[in-house]
Structure formats: C-alpha cells, structure tokens
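Input chain follows. Return structure tokens only.
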Amino acid sequence: MTSESPTSWIWADEARGGVKGARLKPAEGLFDWVDQPGCVCSDAIASQTIMDFREKGPLETPPADVLEEMRGAIRAAPSIDSPRGRG
C-alpha cells in the first residue's frame, strides 16, 4: 500500500442506479465531476475549483468516507488554491 492519496473516486448513485465520480487535478486546482464514468476521458459534467470545494462543499454528494478521502487529498496535494502550492 502506498502513502499517496487517491486522485479519483467513484461511488454508487443509488437514486439513478449507476455511478458518479470525481477526479482531482491538483496542478489545475480543480475537481472534475462525472456522471456515469466509463473511462478516464474528458467526460466531466462540471468542474469545481478546490477553493470553491473548500468554501461551499462538493457539487455532488459523495458518501462520507469518499468525501473525507477527497478532503485528505486536497490537504496532501499542493495546488494553486492551497498555501502549500503557493510560491
């Protein structure tokens, strides 16, 4: 097991019987949100800055354990919106 944080997540979409997901793009300071992901293509339905994620919360509703992993990943990854990523 590595100590690196994950940068992509998928979870069951109980309401629609499919899956939803998110990808963290630390270099751009963005989360891409996907609906029914099938590949690591550019299938994002929306993008959200890390700063917006921190201030307003996620655009989707991942399960609590996934949300905590996402928060851990942005703490661990330097980005344009984080103090660790600034010059």
